[in-house]
Amino acid sequence: MPLSTLQRIAGGSTGRLLHQRAHGIDPRDVTVGGPPASIAAGRRFERDVLDPDEVRQALLALATDLGARLRTAGKTTRGVELQVTYADRSTTTRSRTLREATAHTPVLQDTLYALFTALGLQRARIRAVTARVNNLAAAERSFVQLTLDAATENNRVLEPVLDKANNRWGTGTVHPAALTNPKSHATRPTLRPRRPDRP
Length: 199
Hints:
Layout: H1 3-10, H2 12-22, E1 38-49, H3 52-73, E2 75-86, E3 91-102, H4 105-118, E4 126-138, H5 150-169
Antiparallel strand pairs: 1-4, 2-3, 2-4
């Protein structure tokens, strides 16, 4: 369409802009989008929850999900945030900075449990919980402090194996036993089987 026609329809400056874009003319600098600033996961309960054990079970599911996503993306986190949504739709948010970067599920789990416990909620009707990890960095640039705790080190060795199984056979194929028969009424993630690499 001629420039004069576009300007008559859309106005002088807008018509000129449309004409330039249609011809591939754009003087703006190209900026490449960076990695996500944070990763979040949430659980909304089917009914308002009063039992803190049900909330902790949902937090375990969130920590498991976030840990796997961090490791799959080759990232670690230094910040964990918890948001609790109540029956009246009000929210409370708490965060904590970790001493060292991690993608270790038990560390995320313990941090979320600590944040929830620190809220001191009693008989609060909880509708949803959301966990977020931020201050992300590349895993190869993060240092892991070795411990003398056999369980911690065994879990660190086991996690990549579990991730590989879940990536191949579908999210949630292998998960903590505490999530096998959930007491919680939180919605569960949908399993998404993936095609095996080999027949």
